[in-house]
């Protein structure tokens, strides 16, 4: 029952990331229908035909907070993520971070996920952690004031949740 609940929570997080993710829509108004303008209370119209409140906010969503030298999103460097090992490999898809709770989506093969679990074992998250992961593809451990919950879904998605205790 706990595994089912954990999987359900992980899927909810995946769908919430998908719902809040960046859009490849080139129309800055966010409208899927060209020629249909979005309005607000100010009545000012911007260059693309939609109305705006006149404020000039920088909404460049292409810049990610933690990028490596190739421009890909890198493992986030926060006080919370510093309590767990930095993965030696893999591709961070996106992350949601706070001081006490973080969720990180990573694209790992099974072997890459297993290598990270070995890093967790070496860092003191438990001697049986590798065996548990091989059996269930899910681990939940606490060490050094942080709880890590790792769910390997497939070769395209591994969810990591960190909670500071």
How does this structure look, described?
- The protein contains three helices and seven strands.
- By secondary structure, it is of the alpha+beta class.
- It has a domain at 1-17 and 85-165.
- Strands 3-4-7-6-5 form a five-stranded antiparallel sheet, sandwiched between helices. Strands 1-2 form a two-stranded antiparallel sheet.
- Helix 2 runs antiparallel to helix 3 (129-136).
- The longest helix is centred in the N-terminal third of the chain and has 19 residues, at 2-20.
- Mean pLDDT is 75; it is low at 25-64.
Major sheet summary line: 5 strands, antiparallel
The percentage helix is: 10-25%
The count of strands amounts to 7
Note the beta-strand portion.
15-25%
| Low-pLDDT residue spans | 25-64
- Rg of Cα set: 20 Å
Distance between the termini: 24 Å
Please identify the structural class as seen in this structure: alpha+beta
Helices and strands, in N-to-C order?
Answer: HEEEEHHEEE
Strand order of the largest sheet: 3-4-7-6-5
Based on the structure, what is the oligomeric state of the protein chains?
single chain
Q: Calculate the mean pLDDT score and round it.
A: 75
Count of separate DSSP helical elements: 3
Outline type = globular
């Amino acid at each position: 029952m706990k595994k089912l609940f954990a999987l359900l929570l992980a899927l909810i997080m995946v769908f919430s990331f998908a719902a809040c993710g960046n859009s490849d829509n080139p129309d800055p108004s966010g409208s899927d229908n060209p020629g249909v303008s979005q309005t607000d209370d100010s009545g000012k119209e911007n260059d693309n035909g939609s109305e705006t409140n006149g404020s000039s906010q920088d909404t460049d969503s292409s810049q990610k907070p933690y990028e490596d030298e190739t421009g890909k999103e890198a493992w986030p460097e926060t006080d919370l993520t510093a309590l767990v090992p930095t993965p030696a490999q893999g591709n961070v898809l996106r992350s949601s971070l706070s001081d006490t709770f973080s969720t990180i989506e990573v694209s790992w093969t099974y072997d890459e996920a297993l290598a990270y679990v070995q890093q967790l074992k070496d860092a003191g998250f438990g001697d049986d952690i590798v065996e548990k992961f091989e059996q269930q593809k899910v681990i939940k451990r606490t060490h050094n004031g942080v709880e890590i919950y790792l769910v390997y879904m497939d070769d395209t998605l591994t969810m990591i949740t960190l909670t500071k205790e």
